[in-house]
Amino acid sequence: MRMFFGQFRQVLRRLSRAPLFAAVTLLTLAIGVGANTVIFSVVEGVLLKPLPYPQADRLIGVWHTAPGIDIPQLNMAPSIYFIDREQNTTFQDIGVYNGDAFTVTGAGEPEHVRGLDVTDGTLPLLGVTPVLGRLFSRQDDTAAAPATVILSYAYWQQKFGGATSVIGSSITMDGKARQIIGVLPRKFHFLDFNDAALVVPMQWDRSKIKLGNFSYRAIARLKPGVTMQQASADMARLLPVVLRSFPAPEGFSINLFEKAHFAPSLRPLKQDVVGDVGKVLWVLMGSIAMVLLVACANVANLLLVRVEGRRQELAIRSALGAAWGRTAAELLFESLVLGVAGSLIGLGLAYGALRILVASAPTGLPRIHEIGIDIPVLLFTLGLALFTSVLIGALPIFKYAGVRATTGLREGGRALSQSRERHRARQALVVVQVALALVLLICSGLMIRTFQALTRVDPGFTSPESIQTFRFNIPDTVVPDSQPERITHMEQDILNKIAAVPGVRSVSFSSAIPLDGFDSFDPVFAQDHNYAEGQLPPIRRFKFIAPGFFATIGTRLVAGRDTTWTDLYDKRPVVIVSESFSREYWGSAQGALGKMIRVATTDPWREIVGVAQDIHDDGADKPVSSAVYWPALMEPFEGQKVRVQRGVAFVIRSPRAGSQTFMKEVQEQVWSINSSVPLADPRTVGELYTKSMARTSFTLVLLSVAGAMALLLGIVGIYGVIAYTVSQRTREIGIRMALGAQRNALTGLFVRQGLGLTAIGAACGLVVAFVTMRLMSSILFNVSPADPLTYIVITACVGATACLACYLPSRRAATVNPVNALRSE
Description:
By secondary structure, the chain is of the alpha+beta class. About 50% of the residues lie in helices and about 15% in strands.
C-alpha cells in the first residue's frame, strides 16, 4: 500500500505540473466513457434487463395470423379468449387488456383520465399485489356484476390524498358509479402503456360473444416446463373449437372465418413491450463505441508526446538497472489513474444525461422508467475504465518502457531531428481517428438524408401545426342509445360554437385523425367484384367523419364531392374512399365514382361519391392507408340498426392552434353545450407529426453528435501531429531554409504529410463504412446504405477540414528563423 500511494502521489505531481494535458485528457475520456455509459444504460434497461415481473421469461404475448386472407398479425378476439382460458393445457392463465379513457365527474370540473380495461386474470399474471384492497375476482369480471374500479397509486394520492377509507367508496366514471376495490403499487407500470389512473374489468357477456372483433391484446403465463412450441400447438388445437362454439357476426358467414385459416402466433412478452427499437439502439451503441475508440486514440497520442518528453529520464533509469516490468507498471499506473478518473467524471455526466433523458421521455423509447444507473451499468463503466486505461497506455509502454540507455542518452540533444520511426505510432493513431470519424459521419449523413426524405413525403394533409385537435366522448348517461340522432346534433352544435371562436377558419370531426393511433379496420366488399363463397376481401382502415373533415385537415378530394349534413341526417347510403383504394379496385379515382361497396351482407350497398387524397396515417415512413370514410351517422351498419359515432376527435384549423388561451375559449364553447364532458388530449396535428418522426430525430441527433465529436477529435489529432512534427524538426527546417528552400514549399511539405494521413484514413473509413452501413438499412427511408452522394459529400468535408487542420500548424514552418534554428544546436 505504501508503494501504491507513493506511485499515486508521483502521478498526481506529474499531472499537476501539466494541468492543460490533465484537463484535456480527463475531459476527452469523460465524454467518451459518459456517452457509452448513457447508451449502454438505455440498451440494458430496454433490451437486456428482464421485464420487472416475477418469472418474466414465462410471460408471452398471444397473437394470431390469418394467412387465408393475407393478414400476418391479428390481436386477440373475445371468442378465442374464452376458449383458450377454459380449455388450454399449457397456460397457467391468460388475460386480455386494452387501453381506455374515462370522464370522472362529481368533484369539481369534469376530468379526463387514462384508463385500462382488463380481464380478471391480467393483473395477477404480472404478479401484482395491491397496496390497499384487492384485485378483480372472476365474479367482478362477469356482465351481471356490480361496476368496480382499481386506482393507480398516483391517482389515489392525487385525488384522495392517500386516504385508506377510499376502499368501498364510489367514483363516477362516464356517468356511472363504480366501487373502488383496490389501489395498485407505487412503482407498478403496466407493460409499456402510459400509466393508467383507473383500471376496470372487461365484464364481457359470454352469451353475446360472436366470432371476430380482433381488437384486444392478450398475455399468458406458460406452465413450468412448457415450451413456446407446445403452447402454440395447444392454441392451434383450440381454434377449430372456437369456430364451433360461437356464431358469426350478423352479415358474415362461418365459411369466411374458416377460410381465413387462423393460427396462433406466440412470442415472448418482452418482444411486445420492446418492439423493433433494438435495431436503432444497437446502431447507436456501435456508433458511440467508435467515439470512445477515437477518444482513446487521441489520448494515446497525447500520452505518446508526454512519454517522449521523458525518454532521457527513462533511459537513465534503465542505465541504473530499472527493469522493463517496473517501468511498464509505472506507465500503466499513470494511464490507469487517468482512465479511472476520466470514467468517474464520465459516470457523473452520464447520470445527469440520463436524468434529462428520462424526464424528456423521448417518443418511441420503451421501458423509459427502467433506465438508470444500476449494478450492470456500474460494472460496464468499470470495464470501460480498465479497457481505456490499457488501450491508452499500451502504445507508450510498447514503445518506451524498454528504451535502451544508449538510445535515450544519445538522443538527448534538443535539436536533433526525430526519425520516422518515432512518428509512425502517432501517425497510425491519426489514421484510425480519421477512419472512425468518417464512418460515423457517413452514418449521420445517411440519417440526415433519411430525415430529408421523410420531410419530402406528402403526408396527405397540410400545415399540421395549424390544426388543433381534441377528443370528446358523449356517454350513454348523457344521451341514451335510443336517441342516436341527438348525439350527432350535439356534436354539430359544438362544431358550430367552435366555428364562432375568433381565428377559427374551419372545424369538423372524425373518429380518428392522422397519426393518433385510433385505428379501426374491417373488410370491404365491392358490388362489381366477384367473391367465392366465404372469401374475405382485404382489410381497410375505417374512419367515420363529419362534413368538412377533408377541407379542415387539408386533404384534397381528387374526384367527386364531400358528404353533407343532409347525407348524414337523411342517412343516405354514401361513402368516400381513398385514392389508393380506388386505384386498386377500379384503376383510377374517377373510375370509383358511382361504384357500390359495403361491409356486411346485411348492410345496404353504399355509393362512392368522393375520392380523397391518400394519407400517411401511420407516419411518413409507412405506406399510405387504403381507407374508407363512412358518414358519422348511418343505418344499418355491421349489424347495428343505427351506427353513430359517440367518441370523436374535433379538428380546428386556426393560426391560434396550440395556444392555451385558444383552447380555453374552445372549452368554454364546448361546455356551453355540455358541461359534463371534458376535452381530452388537446394537441396539434403538428405535435403528432413531430412525434411520428421522433425516433428518426432521436437517432439523427445522437449520430450527428457522435460524428461531430469523432471529427473534432480526429482533426485535433491531425493538428497535433503536424504541430508536433514542426516543433521537432525546427533544425531541419532551418537547414532547408538556409539552403534556399521557399516558405511555401516548406508549408506544403507539412500539409502534404497531414493530407496523406487523412487520405489513408479516409480510404480505410470508406471501406469500413461501405461494409458496415448495410446494418443501418432497416432504419433508413428511401436512402441506400451505399448512397454515393452521402459518401462523396462527407469525404469532401472531412478532407477540407483536415486541410485546414494541416495548414494552420504548417504555417509555423515558414516563420522559423534559420539563424536561430541553427544556433539552437
